[in-house]
């Protein structure tokens, strides 16, 4: 499985991804960049991409594990894998 989030205009280092008790949280705090944005954006007439803070949470089932994440061209991809224990996998029963 893949969770894909469009985050154009946000730097990779500013994205926070955490997991705690099977809750995956993806967040961005725009107040960290407030000093840079005040000095750099004073001369801008229009800024097309909003950079508001956000926090998005996903509740994962017990059999889902996170394999990793990447951030390419403004797209954050979080890769998930479903792990099925042996006792829950279907079993063939032989006819005697």
What would you say this structure looks like, in words?
The protein has one helix at 34-41, and strands spanning 2-6, 15-20, 23-28, 54-59, 64-72, 75-82. Helix content is 8%, strand content 42%. It is built from one helix and six strands. The model is unreliable at 34-39 (pLDDT under 50). It is elongated. Strand 5 (64-72) and strand 6 (75-82) form a beta hairpin. With 96 residues, the chain is mainly β.
SSE topology:
Elements: E1 2-6, E2 15-20, E3 23-28, H1 34-41, E4 54-59, E5 64-72, E6 75-82
Antiparallel strand pairs: 1-6, 2-3, 3-4, 5-6
The helix tally amounts to 1
Largest sheet: 3 strands, antiparallel
* Average of per-residue pLDDT values: 84
3D shape: elongated
Strand order of the largest sheet: 1-6-5
H/E order of the elements? Answer: EEEHEEE
| SSE-based structural type | mainly beta
- Provide the low-confidence segments as ranges: 34-39
In terms of DSSP E residues, the strand content is: 35-45%
Terminal CA distance: 39 Å
Number of strands: 6
Considering DSSP H and I runs of 4 or more, what fraction of the residues is helical?
Answer: under 10%
Our Rg estimate from Cα atoms comes to 20 Å
Features:
96 residues, mainly beta, three-stranded antiparallel beta sheet, 1 helix, elongated
Task: Give a quick precis of the structure.
By secondary structure, the chain is mainly beta. It contains one helix and six strands; from the N terminus they run E-E-E-H-E-E-E. Helix content is 8%, strand content 42%.
